[in-house]
Write a structure and sequence with these properties.
single chain; alpha/beta; Rossmann fold; Dihydrodipicolinate Reductase, domain 2; Alpha-Beta Plaits; 3 domains; eleven-stranded mixed sheet; six-stranded parallel sheet; 14 helices; 17 strands; about 35% helix; elongated; binds NADP nicotinamide-adenine-dinucleotide phosphate
């Protein structure tokens, strides 16, 4: 007999209406059963939607939808780490109703307590759509790679930032100009803060860290730097060194624990992640026994994200569900790397600074570098036309972050500095 699963959907925006539309033609999908939408909820009942919804029972309150007797599985597509999304997910889990969500903020900030609740009531909580949209990386890390040790997970996890960096580098337009374009094209929200500050990518890498390394779900442990301080000049200087700047989210297992961070990084133009342009996402998984893998695809948008939600619903239909983070929450006990150990790790850096174009300025700069134990691999003095300022880019040899930061502090104390020096890490691949 065909199994029918009754679902309630809270949130009828980009993803929610995409999901409803796909379920309305589910005969095209390869489900081991049928999914029936029994109830829906959104904020504004009279808002026009791109799908027909009059046939479903309407709930003003998503918690009431989660608790409704008709709702067997609750799908949360509202967003936000607190407020109605959290209340409704908790209500469903307490009643033992499986939850599917696309909400990375909720999982990154409350994943551990929600997982504990899910385990208490032995209820599935699935969130494939929360990381990298349509790329099936959550299931890959939680299930397919559970038989191998993972060394690192690195990727481009925010399409908005990647679009901004790509457009700036290829068109030579500045940040504000390109951001307005991204908002017009629907790649960036009216309030782009979560994306451009790196917070969105940090939510995603926090989730992958717990899945891949068994560290506790602790968002505060992610070091975050966004693209909002990257200038066109930075991208141009990186280009002159045959590099590109990308916002890289990474979780790396070290001898001192797991490093989890999001920051703009210089990558050689030929490296795989440097090839990922525009709004695309990519995730590279480096493993001890099974080699390295790169998954690429659209990391957002109604179609890809709804597909990931449908994949989770399909798993529920087939009863193929593992613990929320692959193992019980009590086993999320691996340490994070201490900050001083991260600072001591060696890397190359790009130092960008603008100096007054006057005699002795460059010599005093290199003096400050030497005084901080930072040696120069390459130095580029860009022409700024008729300006009396000279943008300088320095590629350092490997040095600790602490030494590079000290160099920045000393350089910024120079009288000839016009615009504060900036530090960007360089990776070799
Ligand atoms: N968009 C993407 O490409 C994408 C990709 C990956 C993950 N996600 C995640 O998917 C989730 C949904 O994103 P989205 O882009 O679809 O958002 P959205 O377009 O802003 O839609 C949000 C929906 O939630 C409803 N809502 C807001 N407050 C509510 C409340 N108090 N009670 C009931 N409903 C409420 C809104 O109702 P009204 O329509 O009546 O205003 C709207 O239908 C978020 O967690 C997001 O992070 C999105």
């Amino acid at each position: 007999m065909t199994k029918t699963m009754k679902i309630g959907i809270a949130g009828l925006g980009n993803v929610g209406t995409g999901l409803v539309s796909r379920l309305q033609e589910q005969e095209k999908l390869r489900f081991n059963g049928r999914i029936e939408i029994t109830g829906i909820s959104a904020r504004n009942r009279s808002r026009a939607r791109p799908v027909e919804i009059d046939q479903y029972e309407w709930f003003d309150d998503p918690v009431a939808l989660a608790k409704s007797e008709e709702t067997e599985v609750f799908v949360e597509l509202i967003g936000g780490s607190d407020g109605p999304a959290k209340l409704a997910v908790e209500a469903a889990l307490k009643l033992g109703k499986p939850v599917v969500t696309a909400n990375k903020a909720l999982i990154a900030e409350y994943g551990e307590s929600l997982a504990a609740l899910a385990e208490e009531t032995q209820t599935p909580l699935l969130f494939e759509a929360a990381v990298a949209g349509g790329i099936p990386v959550v299931r890959a890390v939680r299930e397919s790679f559970s038989g191998t040790e993972i060394k690192s997970i690195r990727g481009i996890l925010n399409g908005t930032c990647n679009f901004l960096l790509t457009e700036m580098a290829t068109t030579g337009r500045d940040y504000g100009d390109v951001l307005s374009d991204a908002q017009r094209l629907g790649y960036a929200e009216a309030d782009p803060f979560l994306d451009v500050s790196g917070t969105d990518a940090a939510h995603k890498i926090a989730i992958l860290s717990s899945l891949g390394f068994g560290v506790p779900m602790d968002f505060s442990k992610v070091a975050i730097d966004g693209v909002d301080t990257i200038s066109l000049r930075d991208l141009q200087l990186a280009g002159k060194f045959e590099h590109k700047i990308k916002l890289i989210a990474e979780a790396v297992m070290t001898d001192h624990g797991v490093i989890c961070r999001v920051e703009p990084v210089l990558l050689p133009k030929t490296s795989p992640l440097a090839q990922i342009d525009g709004p695309l996402n990519a995730v590279m998984i480096e493993s001890v026994h099974a080699g390295n893998y790169t998954l690429t695809g659209p990391g957002a948008g109604s179609g890809p994200t709804a597909s990931a939600v449908l994949g989770d619903l399909s798993a529920l239909l087939s009863d193929q569900v593992k613990p929320v983070f692959g193992v019980g929450v009590e086993k999320l006990d691996q340490p994070f790397c201490a900050t001083d150990k991260i600072s001591a790790a060696e890397s190359k850096y790009l130092i960008r600074v603008e100096l007054q174009d006057k005699a002795g300025a460059l010599a005093s700069l290199t003096e400050k570098l030497a005084g901080s134990d930072v040696s120069v691999e390459a130095l580029l003095q860009d022409s700024a036309g008729d300006s009396e300022y000279a943008p300088i880019a320095i590629m350092t040899h490997e040095c600790s972050y602490a030494a590079a930061e000290e160099a920045i502090r000393r350089i910024n104390s120079l009288e000839a500095v016009v615009d504060s020096a900036r530090l960007i890490r360089i990776e070799s691949s």
